[in-house]
Amino acid sequence: MSVAPGDAFLGVERSLTGRRWQSRPGDARVAQALSQRLALPELVGRVLAARGIGLDEAAAFLSPTLRDLLPDPGHLRDMDKAVARLAQAVQTGETIGIFGDYDVDGATSTAVLTLYLEAAGARVLTHIPDRVVEGYGPNAPALARMQAEGARLVITVDCGTTAFAALEAAAAAGQEVIVVDHHVAESSLPPALAVINPNRLDEDSPHRHLAAVGVSFLLAVGLNRALKQAGWFTNRPAPDLLRWLDLVALGTVCDVVPLVGVNRALVAQGLKVMGRRSNPGLAALADVAGVKERPDAYHLGYVLGPRVNAGGRVGEAGLGARLMTTADPIEAGDIARRLDGYNKDRQEIEAAVLAEAIEQVETRPDDGLPLLLAAGEGWHQGVIGIVAGRLKERYGRPACVIALDGDTGKGSGRSVIGLDLGAAIIAARQAGLLVAGGGHAMAAGFTLERDKLADLHAFIADRLQAQLSGELVPLLDLDGALDAGAASVELIETLAGIGPFGSGNPEPVFAVTNARIVRADVVGSGHVRLILTGAGGKRLKAIAFRAADSEMGMTLLASAGASFHLAGTLRVDNWQGASTAQLVVTDAALAR
After folding, report:
1. What is the pTM of this model?
2. Which end of the chain is more exposed for a tag (fewer CB within 10 A), N or C?
3. What gap in Å lies between CA 587 and CA 411, rounded to an integer?
4. What are the residues whose beta carbons fall under 8 Å from the beta carbon of 344, sequence distance 6 or more?
């Protein structure tokens, strides 16, 4: 179903979550041609067309390969310089340090380079900073300790681009640093042997959407080529880089970078590698998390990723990287169980902070600013980014959440498409409102003095307001509409061919129209479970996660027998050996 530009999809101007529904734009003639040429359902053709895929691109989009899409590593500035120095270090037996970030992108970047360098015969020393004690990015004391343990050459991964003070101290001590990062850079760069970052301001790479783990993989590819040319593998087996694509896929999906171009190929091929369960750590984590089917991008982003992240958020920062680099299945199982436990702790802490943040937002008069800000004394720094994301999802506005501790605070922000929060945070730091800060369009982190809280709120809101062309109205893009009876396992499996889904290639969202609620109840941790029926009487299972206390959830629970338009994604539900279609509900509107 399509509507004219500007018209609300199904006439929904304001849904139960406060959003306006709109049809994702796409050329109907291209959609029809795609359906006919590729023998696909017309609905699937519309999904492809809405993502800008034409007849010429369709084959490559549906079957992305590294052979076609992986760029030459040397196209990135400083790559050749870094490769030459690392090749020398490997061949002369130097200890190489890796300083990683504590999130999934940092952990997978650390793991990829550790596994590659060790397979190439190098001695590797790694360090993941404690989020609370050390904070984000390289710090001088940690680099000094690494140097004292023999690492006069260090690679920073997923961090370092704005670490001026730490890298100045390292340079003064005679330590060489190679920065491998993807975060937004400033006009000047820190003193380093090399800064490999597709988002350097002087970089002309078209691959600015790479996650740090993607840049790390390119570094490994370049180094592998250099070592082969030097004859280093004449008497030892050359590492198989493809075996670590599962790690690249995990970091890429979890850092929410656009799954387009080379990222799409890295994730698509990485999911195939992950399906073979060749990494003991990821296999153990999948078992602990109850992932029995072949993993897809959903499992990476919402099942495995949060558990890897939990170590850096509320537990031991280095556990994620250790999990992915161990070859011992027994150790892998132990680490996986510990991470699963930390994830449960994280969920409890997150729920408490989220409840307080929501109370702040909803009891404060709406100032109309395009930024929500919540701050609390003693809030755990490890969950503020997740809570910011929850606020953004709930209210459709960029959100910043700050954990206050005395006179200072650590903050994390999440934005909506079209509003560059990272640039606003960098501008605030340059204006003297922040002690430290950085990020990218959709996410940012910062440190501030408590007495600058109000000024920071106003400054960032003004910066975001300047990017708006009109009123900030929460929108929900839909790919089409269907009856409850049309949702089938076969349709879902066909749609899966358009994956992997994520930022830049969103999972298709459909409206199940005029669906009557046969039954509604609460299951698990506040999830709303529904049984729906359509015009033909066929039933469809549906679930709205964490919705029981929301306006949408409470309305659905109280409306047995009523008809709604329900928006969401279609998933296969495997239960007791049977596979059925299920709608994961993200929004709803009363059918009129």
Report:
1. 0.87
2. C
3. 29
4. none
